[in-house]
Design the sequence.
């Protein structure tokens, strides 16, 4: 995992753990999310360093900086993975959190 991916890892794991949606099976998907975030940051930094999203060619044409496509691709991957884990407002209601061990399920007690 990249340095930036590792930086995101602790932050993302903390959020997902508090949300109660994290399981051992999620490690690879979380890694992909962290790397997508790292890719997005890298492309964003390249755009900033270049002075913006466009450049002018020697022929006078205005073109998009190559990092714009990389940033947009990383944003799509990141958005998709954020939604998978319920980390966007619209997706949050679709993700079921795990019951923690210290909370009792009233239905399970009644029917159990």
Sequence:
């Amino acid at each position: 995992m990249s340095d930036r991916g590792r930086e995101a890892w602790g932050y993302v794991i903390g959020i997902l753990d508090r949300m109660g949606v994290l399981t051992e099976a999620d490690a690879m998907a979380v890694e992909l999310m962290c790397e997508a975030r790292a890719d997005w940051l890298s492309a964003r930094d390249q755009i900033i360093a270049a002075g913006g999203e466009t450049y002018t060619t020697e022929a006078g044409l205005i073109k998009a900086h190559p990092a714009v496509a990389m940033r947009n691709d990383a944003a799509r991957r990141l958005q998709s993975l954020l939604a998978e884990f319920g980390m966007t407002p619209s997706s949050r209601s679709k993700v079921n959190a795990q019951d923690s061990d210290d909370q009792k399920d009233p239905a399970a007690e009644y029917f159990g």
Q: What stands out?
A: Residues 3-96 form one domain. The mean pLDDT is 87.
